[in-house]
Amino acid sequence: MKSRRFIPVLLLAAFSLGAYAQDTPAGEAMGFLSLHRGAARSAMAGAGSAAVSSSAAFGAFDNPAALPFTARIVDASASYGMWAPGSSVAKSDNIALGVTAKPWKALALSVAAVNQAHPAQDFGDGAYKPLDGLVSVGAGAAFGKHVGIGASFIYAYQRLMPDYSLPAYAFHIAAQYHAKNIDVTAAVRNIGPAIKAEKGNEYALPSSARLGATYNGNVGKSNIEASLDMDVYFSGKFAAAAGVQYCYDNLLYARAGYRFAAQGAPLPSHLALGIGVKWKGFCLDAAYI
């Protein structure tokens, strides 16, 4: 009997384009911690944190509680994007790599990293490309068939000038309810100490409480997945993303989503569209934001 579990790696090559920029709210820093990774999620404006059918490679950044419910033993992803919300410039070279492994039926481990280079800026002593970086390690465990718990540790930094950088440490803690057609997740995200700048000013991380839900259903050779995610930021801001994914014959994908965000939220309101193709365990997805 053939089984997809013998396919060891699902490779997702993701390409995202965008032209939005928004300053992080006063008193907060590192808004890029809230940015969704991977083109499939980007094409739905970030909706779908509860989904278990999509790539789990960036689960350490997103929802570690969903990891033990993925059907794949190993899931690897490489992503390239050009969107840099939270900065004074719209475009960047945004490269992300992620791997999730499921060594046991009820336990999954995930590691992911991001390097985001902004266009060169002249600070008076020569041009320099500011850099943002993320490294995350996460784990998720299933308790029975329906409940999952997960946590991630995140190290982030902003290198503003060659001799000046700001580090940050944060955690995600999440819970997942998994059923045949419905997944629901609840999480607290980016929980960590404030960042202390050189002059002694302190800036909070974009911490939030998240609630997400996904419905997944089949009609003949078609599969439809609808997702809704809501974030209440500790700064008092609110954001919600709704997205839909249509798949034909487990081969072709079409996606769309919209994110509403209150003024000053780490990610601005935006529309997103995307397409994808899947063949023998390999996926190629593209998103336009």
Please describe what this structure looks like.
With 289 residues, the protein is mainly beta. 1% of the residues lie in helices and 57% in strands. It is built from one helix and 18 strands. The strands form three sheets. Strands 1-2-3-4-7-8-9-10-13-14-15-16-17-18 form a 14-stranded mixed beta barrel. A two-stranded antiparallel sheet has the order 5-6. The longest helix is centred in the N-terminal third of the chain and has 4 residues, at 39-42. The chain is globular, with a radius of gyration of 18 Å. The termini are far apart.
The rough form would be described as globular
In whole angstroms, the N-to-C terminal distance is: 41 Å
Biggest sheet features: 14 strands, mixed, barrel
Structural class from helices and strands?
A: mainly beta
The number of distinct β-strands equals 18
Helical stretch tally: 1
Give the helices and strands, then pairings:
Blueprint: E1 11-17, H1 39-42, E2 74-83, E3 91-104, E4 107-117, E5 121-122, E6 127-128, E7 131-143, E8 147-161, E9 164-178, E10 182-191, E11 195-196, E12 202-203, E13 208-219, E14 222-233, E15 238-248, E16 252-261, E17 270-279, E18 282-288
Parallel strand pairs: 1-2, 1-18
Antiparallel strand pairs: 2-3, 3-4, 4-7, 5-6, 7-8, 8-9, 9-10, 10-13, 11-12, 13-14, 14-15, 15-16, 16-17, 17-18
